[in-house]
Amino acid sequence: MAKTTGDIKAGGAFIELYVNGAAKVNATLQGVGSTYKRFSSSVAACARVAQRTVTACNRVIAASAAATRRALSGAANVGQSINAAGRTAMIGG
Fold first, then answer.
1. pLDDT per residue over 2-50, tens digit each?
2. Separation CA 77–CA 93 (nearest Å)
3. 3 state SS of 1
4. Looking at residue 2, what DSSP letter applies?
5. Which residues 6+ apart lie within 8 Å of 47 measured at CB?
6. Secondary structure (DSSP) of 43-86
7. Residue 7 and residue 15: Cα distance in Å, rounded?
8. What is the CA angle 49-51-45, rounded to 5?
9. How far is CA 77 from CA 2, 60, 70, 82, 86, in A?
10. Does residue 1 surpass a pLDDT of 60?
11. Residue 4 region, left (φ>0) first, then alpha (ψ -120 to 50), else beta?
């Protein structure tokens, strides 16, 4: 079967389209990879910020709990002192 000039030109055009298409796909994939790396880096940075925020919140919560325990203990001591003073006043009265 003899190849005609038209067949050869068509084959060449097909190869050219394939090569150009493959190059465009490759460039697009490289762009996607680059975008993914930037996105992944941003997510990691956000995760670090979130972890620091959670750690700071936990410290504040622990400090608040300790302050509340001290306040409740102080209030209990004041209540006991008032109670003792009232008993003493009743005995004296």
1. 567 766 777 777 787 778 888 888 899 999 999 999 999 999 999 999 9
2. 24
3. coil
4. P
5. none
6. HHHHHHHHHHHHHHHHHHHHHHHHHHHHHHHHHHHHHHHHHHHH
7. 12
8. 35
9. 110, 26, 10, 9, 14
10. no
11. beta
